[in-house]
Structures are given as structure tokens and as C-alpha cells.
Specification:
heterodimer, A: alpha/beta, seven-stranded mixed sheet, 12 helices, B: alpha/beta, six-stranded parallel sheet, two-stranded antiparallel ribbon, 14 helices, globular
């Protein structure tokens, strides 16, 4: 058993390294991923060890990166593409939605698209515009893509490897605020949970908090604070956004009767809307309150000096919890 | 067409002409050369028949749409026949002649336009990718595929059966797309073994070439750092020679080339288009004199390389092909409603499986119900 305390950034780096060691067809491609090791250093040292043919510094063109990755996948490679920041994925949107997502379908299963598109997402790092966004719903809305988000170092290590091993294209959302925030004990001989599975990370009986990526930490802190006031909150880390793994969610909400979804993305037509609809359809008689959503407001992502007020924080989550409990 | 940049080996009148850099038939005996030109002729006649037959099928309501290639037969057969087995092609939705060269049953081309599938052939079997409808997107796929070929060590090995090139098709309209320009940049940056083959048919639906570019398209290649040339796209010999040289260049590891095949879209953009609204019939009449098939027929007959019997035999073959398309198109099975779920993912998620099963149960609920007339 090899255990070590690692950050999410280091865990992702180790997971990528392991995937490249295990399969020579795995390639990494993106802007500044080589010598620099990526602007967040997630690919640090990989080009040095695997060479420029496998860790490819690309021209500065996102559609070009994803479009050429499509060609590499058609040739039998497993490209892992890095989009430098969430807000820069849109030039590649056409390639992702029209080409990557549909290739398997339109070829009647003859062509596979085993591609991972890594996107550092979310806010809270004091960045300038276009560097703090949460575009997950746009991809979860697209049939043919799978969308996951890790919330912690241990998941980061395993989920990136599982995503690379998947024969379907995976949008892999990394909470950039968490990259260097906390360390966790990683046992690289453990058996990981499946990739497309949600997980109860804290048990509770009064209400279910649903989060993913950066908001799992917020939810856990909210549950801790609520416990001090005698409220027992269950926290579920969704982990997979498309497909949704509704089993643990429905089991939980049918026990607690209340659910609050927390994400940084705008609430309008966000993941919370889909979760609320599905919970209502499938847990209608267990619900004691409507499913509430806490998220970014329906505005563009704001200037960073006001982002902490805009983002769902501990107090806004607790406020929603109170409203649900009092309903 | 007094264009000093235009590479031509067979004039519209069917006369062979010399070019300082390109030639056709080097290393072939006279009979081998004649055989190859007769082969091109046959390919072009049959390709034109596929096109006219499919256009007619659309008019009869058997196809929802057809993208016509009339006038572009030489550009497509010249390029398609320059390929080697191991090369890989990324077509637009108009590359019916190149598909023919790759051995694809033209009936399979109709599926997309009839609405029974979105590409019925196996790209890995034919080394011919599915048609791409989003303009220019496939040029990036071609470039990435070529980068994969490089990583497989299949360029510059000096083994003609291994060295591999990728042929990326697109049109003059696509040359304005960001993806095409990004493909040029990536291909140049990595020296990828790809040939960018642009059929400049002068029209992007109703937009003339002047709306896309102020300079001849092939000259853009210089700005990206690789060679570009303009070939008479209605001259199958020149198109073959130029494409072959460009593919060799790529296979040898010398990187990308831009080939502008200068041609003309004699038909409409697709069967829904009406070119009389935006272009002069004079132009079309002028281009009729440069017909790609007539000039080869003139060359073959004038030089005693094909007689009436031969031409009749090709015509009979075209008639058979037409019958094959008409019969086959009408009997293509529609997809079943639940088949839409089959290949969304390599690994079908549980929630999609549930949606499919629910839909199947819903459909089954109508079984046995009498339908009133």
C-alpha cells in the first residue's frame, strides 16, 4: 500500500501519469501543457517523462485542439485535452457538441470517441472575466457526452483514470479553487468507486444537500454548522452530472423529504432544475418541501471583488436549508 | 482561362499540354496510360450518373435532399484515384466521386439524404470518413488523424505500402471558416501529412468566391507556411498529377499542401437551391465548354483509344448503376423508433436504457388496437 497526502492538483497529475504509463495510446494536448506543465501545473513534468509526441503543446486555438483530438481518436488514440479555463471552451463548442458528442451515434457505433476534455471550472480565485465560469449544464444537455466533476484529491486521482479508460467522451470538470486547497490521504492500491456513481459523503436525516465539484466542500461545511443547531443534513457528492446517478439521491430524499441543490452555475435551467424535476417525478409523495436551488444568480459571472457574494456560500446554503425545513 | 498559375495537362478541347512541374503517365507504357485514362473516363461517367440519378430520386420524393456534384467529376476522380489504399479521406457531403474511388457502394451515400441513417459505411473499412455537414469541421479531424499517422511512424519510411497521407476535402466557402484556418495552422505547426484539397466551385450556395477571398485561394497557403497550387479541377489528368505529388510530399514527411482545384458548380448547391436567383446563365454556358468528361472523351476518341463500342459499354454500365440506385433506394429500410437509443454511447447509461424501455412499452401499448380507416 502506498499512501501519501496530496492536493487535488497533485492527485490529478499522478492520475494522468498512471494513465499514460498504463496505455501508450493516451495523449495529452492543450495550451501550455508541456514545458510549463499547464497554467495550474496539472500536467507538470509529464512532457519531460513522456516526450513531446505524447504531451503536445498546441497552438492557441480551442476548436483546433478538440478538432484535431477528434482525428487522433479516429486514428486509435485516447486524447486527453486540456481547456485552459472554463470560459475558453466556447470556441471548441461546435466541435464538442456537433462532432465529439455525435460521432458514435452517427456512425452507428462504428467509430469510438474516447476523449477526455478537462476543464478547470468555477470561481472564487479572484480572476478576471471568463476565468470563473460553470458551463456544465451546456454539456450535460448534450446527448453523447458524459460529464463528471471531482470534488477532492482521492476522487481526482481515480476519476481521471476512469474517464480516460471510458470509450465515451467525457467532459471532466475540475474545481480549480480546490486544486491547491486541501490535502487528502491517497491510497493508490484502494478500489475506487465507479466513475458514474454518486456518493453520500455525510449521513443525515432532516434534509439532503446535493453538490458537486467546488460546492461539495460548501455543503459539508453547511452540514457541520447546521449540526451545531441540531439539524441533521445529509450531503451527496453527485460526481456524475451526465448520466445522473439518481439512485442514492432518491433513496436519500425519500428518507429526508427535503432537498437543496447547490452549484455555482446560474440556477436558471441549471443542473438543479433537472434534479428538482426528477426528484419531484420520482419522490413526490416523500417530499415535505419543494426542492430548492442555491447557485449563481442569472447574471454573467461578476467582477471578482463581488464574487464571494455572488457564489453560493455557507450562509446562503443555510438560508435555503432553513426555508426548506420551515416549509 | 488565361491564368498563368493554373496547372493544366488536358485542355477543354481534349489536347494534351506540357507543364514544367507536373506530368501524367511518366513510367507508364502507352497502353497502360490509355487504360488509366479510360478508367478515369469510366469513373467520371459513372459518378455523373450517380449524381443525376440521385437528383432524380430527390425529385421523385425518395430523397429529402441531394448535394449535387455536376461539373466536379474530374476534381473528385483525379483526387480519389491519386490515393493509395492506406491513405485516409475526410470528405464534405459532396464527395460522391471520391467515395466511388474508395469502393463505397453509391447506394450507401443515399442513406443520409433519404433520412435512414447519417452515414451507412464503415470508415475504417473504406478509409473514407463519414460525410461532414458542418462546413470545414472535418479539416481539423483530418489534421488530427494525420498527427496520429505521424505518431504511428508511418511517414517517411520509404515503403510505399506503408507511408500514409490524409486527404482533407473542403470548398471555397469553407475556406472562410475558423476551423479550416486552424487546421492549416496545426498542420503547419506539426508538419502533418495532410493534403488540403479545396474544390473551388466558385459558389457557396449564393455567395460568389469574391465574398470569401481577395486573393486566389491557393496563395493563402504561403501565409501558413506550406506550398499551395491551383490546378484545373476540370482536368482529371492534372488533378491526378498534382494531388499525387502532394500526397507523396505528405507521405515522405514533408508536411501539408494546399491544392485548389479550380472548377465550377454546374448544378445547384443542393436540390433545395435555385441558382437562377443569383447567377447568370452566361457563366454556366461558358463553363459548359470546359466540361471535365467531354474533354477526356474527345481525347480518347480522337486518338483512337476508345471506340463507339467502348463508350456504349460505359453507358450501359451507367444504366445498370442507375437501376441499382433506383431499386435500392426505394427498398432501404427505415430505422426502427427504438434504434435511436442504440449508439448514443459505447456504454449505455442506465437512465437512457430506462427511457428506451419506457418508449418501447409506450409503443407496444398501441399493438392490437384497431386503426380506423
Amino acid at each position: 500500500m502506498t499512501t501519501s497526502k496530496v492536493t487535488l492538483a497533485k492527485a490529478l497529475n499522478s492520475g494522468l501519469r498512471k494513465a499514460m504509463e498504463d496505455d501508450p495510446k493516451v495523449l495529452i494536448m492543450g495550451e501550455d501543457v508541456g514545458k510549463l506543465g499547464g497554467v495550474f501545473r496539472i500536467t507538470d513534468g509529464l512532457q519531460k517523462d513522456f516526450g513531446e509526441d505524447r504531451v503536445i503543446d498546441s497552438p492557441l486555438a480551442e476548436s483546433g485542439i478538440v478538432g484535431t483530438a477528434v482525428g487522433l481518436a479516429l486514428r486509435g488514440y485516447r486524447p486527453v485535452v486540456e481547456i485552459q479555463f472554463d470560459g475558453f471552451v466556447y470556441p471548441a463548442y461546435d466541435q464538442i457538441v456537433c462532432q465529439v458528442a455525435k460521432m458514435h451515434f452517427r456512425s452507428q457505433g462504428r467509430l469510438a470517441m474516447p476523449m477526455v476534455i478537462r476543464i478547470p471550472f468555477g470561481g472564487g480565485i479572484g480572476a478576471v472575466e471568463h476565468h470563473s465560469e460553470s458551463p456544465e449544464a451546456q454539456f450535460a444537455h448534450t446527448p453523447g457526452l458524459k460529464v463528471v466533476s471531482c470534488s477532492n484529491p482521492v476522487d481526482g486521482y481515480w476519476m481521471i483514470q476512469q474517464a480516460i479508460a471510458s470509450d465515451d467522451p467525457v467532459i471532466f470538470l475540475e474545481p480549480k479553487r480546490q486544486y491547491h486547497a486541501d490535502k487528502a490521504e491517497l491510497d493508490d492500491t484502494a478500489t475506487p468507486d465507479p466513475l458514474f456513481a454518486s456518493r453520500v459523503t455525510r449521513r443525515g436525516s432532516d434534509l439532503t444537500l446535493l453538490g458537486y465539484g467546488p460546492t461539495v466542500k460548501t455543503c459539508l461545511r453547511a452540514a457541520e454548522a447546521a449540526a451545531g443547531e441540531g439539524k441533521s443534513l445529509e450531503v451527496i457528492d453527485l460526481r456524475t452530472l451526465s448520466p445522473l446517478d439518481m439512485g442514492p439521491v432518491l433513496e436519500s430524499v425519500s428518507r429526508t423529504g427535503r432537498a437543496v441543490v447547490v452549484h455555482e452555475a446560474h440556477v436558471n435551467l441549471g443542473m438543479g432544475a433537472e434534479l428538482a424535476a426528477r426528484i419531484t417525478e420520482q419522490c413526490f409523495y416523500s417530499l415535505e418541501a419543494p426542492v430548492l436551488r442555491v447557485g449563481g444568480f442569472d447574471t454573467p459571472y461578476p467582477p471578482s471583488r463581488v464574487e464571494e457574494e455572488w457564489l453560493p456560500d455557507l450562509d446562503r446554503v443555510l438560508d435555503a436549508v432553513d426555508r426548506a425545513l420551515e416549509f | 482561362m488565361a491564368d498563368p498559375d493554373l496547372i493544366q495537362l488536358l485542355t477543354p478541347e481534349g489536347e494534351r499540354v506540357e507543364h514544367p512541374d507536373y506530368s501524367f503517365g511518366a513510367g507508364l507504357t502507352a497502353e497502360e496510360e490509355a487504360e488509366q485514362i479510360r478508367g478515369f473516363y469510366r469513373d467520371m461517367v459513372l459518378t455523373r450518373r450517380i449524381d443525376t440519378e440521385a437528383t432524380a430520386l430527390q425529385r421523385h420524393g425518395e430523397l429529402g435532399l441531394w448535394a449535387q456534384l455536376l461539373g466536379q467529376e474530374a476534381a473528385q476522380i483525379g483526387a480519389g484515384r491519386a490515393l493509395r489504399r492506406q491513405d485516409f479521406v475526410f470528405p464534405t457531403y459532396r464527395e460522391h466521386g471520391v467515395a466511388w474511388c474508395r469502393g463505397i457502394d453509391p447506394l450507401q451515400l443515399l442513406g443520409l439524404f433519404r433520412g435512414v441513417d447519417q452515414g451507412g459505411w464503415d470508415p475504417h473499412e473504406s478509409n473514407f470518413h463519414l460525410y461532414t455537414v458542418v462546413i470545414g469541421a472535418q479539416t481539423l479531424h483530418a489534421t488530427g488523424y494525420a498527427m496520429g499517422v505521424q505518431r504511428d511512424g508511418l511517414v517517411g519510411t520509404d515503403d510505399p505500402d506503408r507511408d500514409t497521407a490524409v486527404l482533407a476535402h473542403f470548398g471555397d466557402g469553407a475556406s472562410s471558416q475558423g476551423d479550416v484556418n486552424e487546421a492549416f495552422i496545426f498542420a503547419a505547426s506539426y508538419n502533418a501529412p495532410v493534403v488540403f484539397f479545396c474544390q473551388n466551385n466558385q459558389w457557396a450556395i449564393s455567395e460568389p468566391i469574391e465574398r470569401q477571398t481577395r486573393i486566389p485561394l491557393f496563395q493563402r497557403a504561403l501565409g501558413f507556411g506550406f506550398p499551395g497550387m491551383r490546378v484545373d479541377g476540370n482536368d482529371v489528368l492534372a488533378t491526378y498529377a498534382v494531388t499525387q505529388a502532394a500526397l507523396d510530399h505528405a507521405r515522405e514527411g514533408q508536411g501539408p499542401t494546399f491544392v485548389e482545384a479550380y472548377t465550377y458548380r454546374m448544378g445547384a448547391h443542393t436540390t433545395t437551391d435555385d441558382p437562377t436567383r443569383y447567377r447568370l446563365s452566361d457563366d454556366v454556358e461558358r463553363w459548359k465548354l470546359r466540361d471535365p468528361i467531354a474533354r477526356v472523351e474527345a481525347y480518347l476518341t480522337r486518338n483512337g483509344l476508345a471506340d463507339a463500342d467502348y463508350l456504349d459499354s460505359i453507358k450501359a454500365e451507367a444504366d445498370d448503376l442507375g437501376a441499382h440506385l433506383r431499386a435500392g433506394c426505394r427498398t432501404m429500410p427505415d430505422p426502427t423508433p427504438t434504434s435511436v437509443f442504440d449508439h448514443v454511447y459505447a456504454e449505455m447509461p442506465e437512465e437512457l436504457r430506462a427511457q428506451r424501455d419506457e418508449f418501447a412499452a409506450y409503443l407496444a401499448s398501441f399493438e392490437g388496437e384497431g386503426v380506423s380507416a
